[in-house]
Design brief:
Blueprint (H helix, E strand, L loop, with lengths): L4 E6 L9 H17 L4 E4 L13 H10 L5 E8 L5 H14 L4 E6 L6 H8 L9 H13 L18 E5 L2 H10 L3 E3 L8 H11 L11 E10 L2 H7 L1 H12 L18 H10 L3 E5 H15 L3 E5 L5 H16 L1
Parallel strand pairs: 1-2, 1-9, 2-3, 3-4, 4-5, 5-6, 6-7, 7-8, 7-9
Helix pairs in contact: 1-12, 3-5, 6-7, 9-10, 11-12
């Protein structure tokens, strides 16, 4: 796996007992270390009305990280395009690419990134915007290409080469990425059900484009690496508690780890959470290295994007360091 690409998805998770300002400080430290360790890209995801996710102003965070690093690619995993005008996204990412040339990625999704009430607060009367996602994607490409749709220019943005990725967790996203000849990033870190079917469909129906000659699959997964398997499993209980909150609808700030999850969740909650966490890799460096080699061999993915919900910042930094060492061997 010496030449295999590995990257980071940062959800700007807010930690119990810490502030959002702390979260952003940790993101800078994580990104700087990721750059030093050879990670390819550092992405943020657009979410709204979630007390434990602070990446709602995604473009601003991308700019903040890009300003505090020097070479790593920075981008969105993703921007929820139906929440925005394609022109505004072209201008925002055109600005980022102008400030940090050759370093900006634009990953796009169609979900609201929140609940329906919040989606209505964002989209208003445009609640059906998700159905126009393919057309909005084309509009965005036209703005970057300088085709002047309706005699409108994206300034800045026009004429800039900003890689666009399609993000998703379904067969629909796979079809769109394949039809447009764009790289495909799958959200297997929380929606594993259609992962294998989607990447197979993407590869089978891929049409080469001026953007990409061959299919390119990025899989996002949960990773916790520590000195021992036992320690990693202990640290991963913060992640499990987080997913229990998703399942029960009782979201919480990222909590500290616990010795026994059985004291916290019911069997039904455990089963539902562990299904969502199917593509999680937890253990010592040798354990995770073995797990990931098998995963990469079975799926044929081109790149892995790790997200690590760890309560302790030093443990998170260490986990990403050990992961990089495992993937370089």
């Amino acid at each position: 796996m010496g030449n295999f690409k590995y990257s980071v998805l940062d959800l700007a998770t807010v930690i119990e007992g810490h502030t959002i300002a702390d979260t952003f400080k940790y993101s800078v430290a994580n990104a700087r270390q990721a750059e030093a360790l050879g990670y390819t890209r550092y992405w943020f995801a657009e979410h709204h009305n979630m007390i434990n996710v602070a990446s709602s102003a995604t473009s601003l965070l991308i700019g903040h990280i890009a300003a505090n690093t020097s070479g790593i690619r920075v981008g969105s995993g993703g921007i929820m395009l139906p929440n925005h005008s394609p022109l505004v996204i072209a201008e925002q990412f055109g600005t980022l690419e102008t400030l940090y040339p050759g370093r900006i990625d634009l990953g796009l999704g169609r979900a609201p990134g929140s609940d329906q009430a919040t989606a209505f607060a964002i989209r208003g009367e445009n609640m059906n915007a998700a159905f126009h996602f393919p057309q909005d994607l084309e509009s965005l490409q036209h703005y970057f290409a300088g085709d002047h749709p309706n005699n409108i220019s994206a300034v800045p943005g026009e004429g800039l080469d900003i890689p666009i990725w399609i993000l998703g967790s379904s067969l629909d996203s796979a079809r769109l990425a394949a039809a447009k000849g764009l790289p495909y990033a799958f959200a297997s870190h929380f929606a594993p059900t259609y992962f294998l079917a989607a990447i197979e469909l993407y590869r089978q129906t891929f049409k080469p484009s001026k953007y990409l000659a061959e299919p390119y699959v990025l899989a996002c997964v949960n990773v916790v690496v520590a000195d021992t398997d036992h320690e990693a499993e202990y640290l991963a209980t913060s992640l499990k508690q987080l997913f229990r909150g998703i399942i029960t609808g009782r979201r919480q700030l990222l909590p500290p780890p616990v010795e026994k999850m059985d004291d916290i969740w019911s069997p039904a909650e455990r089963d539902a959470a562990m299904q969502m966490l199917t593509y999680s890799f937890t253990g010592s460096k040798p354990t995770v290295e073995t797990q990931l080699k098998d995963f990469i061999s079975r799926t044929g993915i081109n790149e892995i994007m790790a997200t690590s919900h760890l309560y302790d910042q030093n443990a998170r930094l260490k986990s990403y360091r050990l992961l990089a060492e495992a993937l370089k061997t």
